[in-house]
Amino acid sequence: MNNLNRRLQTTLQQRFGETLDLPPDLPGAGDLLRIAEHRSHRRWATTPLPPELTRLLAACALSAPTKSYLQQVDIIDVRDAGQRAALAALTPTMPWLADAPALLVFCGNGRRFKRLFDRKGLPFTNDHLDSFFNCVVDASMVMMNFINAASAAGLVCCSISMLRNEAERLARILQLPQRVVPVAGLCIGYPSFEASALAPLQPRLPLRATFHVDRMGAADDDTAIDDFDARHVEARAASPGGAPNPRTWSAERTHQYATPQREDWGRFVRSQGFNLK
Ligand SMILES: Cc1cc2nc3c(=O)[nH]c(=O)nc-3n(C[C@H](O)[C@H](O)[C@H](O)COP(=O)(O)O)c2cc1C
After folding, report:
1. Ranges of CATH 3.40.109.10 domains, the chain
2. 42 CA distance to ligand 1 middle (Å)
3. Which of 27, 33, 66, 107 has its CA 20 to 30 A from that of 144?
């Protein structure tokens, strides 16, 4: 096995806790390794990001597939210092947003599609939940494509959904028109190579819980969660600067979501003009 394939196998072993079989003549192992090594980064080098590079990466990202060729995504590159400060004020516990060399907001845009009908004086016959869902799916795909494009260009990213905690304020700051919703922010920069800044590889649930052949079968495999909890604690304990007594994934996640969050999101989406029936 060549070096690249070995690194890919080791990375996926750390991620999923199992040794995957790799064909000896695997094509694209370098690209696969870059995808498998994904990490969200929250510390940045001070190197600025040229705006034309952000625009180039956005063009690559917006080349993603798009549901029914509807192109229901807009990206806002927040460059103005006042605008950046206003967004940073929405995420005071996440200084990595304020510090990031660049910040984008990915939006689902259901407006243009409806306007095609309005301009022709036609009734908008598909005004229901699916219209909202489709533009959010498209925006998610474009954001993931941006993360991959940025990674190919030597950049690192962190998605930020916390911006949506105060959706109305966010919509006002970005002057989002009706039928446009923010899906997530994305901080971008060059990685800081200080040892303490390196983001650890975060394990994922075992493939037996998330990858299925032909049908899903047993819905609640608690042993998969228990195995993952153990691997998560091990990874946390081994990561540099990690907590001395790491909690399980189950404990962390249920603690994070023990209090209600974004309860007004549905109301906000409706107030933006989406019909969720
Ligand atoms: C839609 C979305 C929203 C996210 N929002 C935030 C956020 O508000 N703040 C943050 O620090 N990380 C955020 N993240 C990053 C996740 O916390 C991260 O992906 C997860 O912990 C797994 O770590 P990894 O990406 O390094 O593998 C978000 C990720 C996604 C996909």
Report:
1. 51-191
2. 10
3. 27
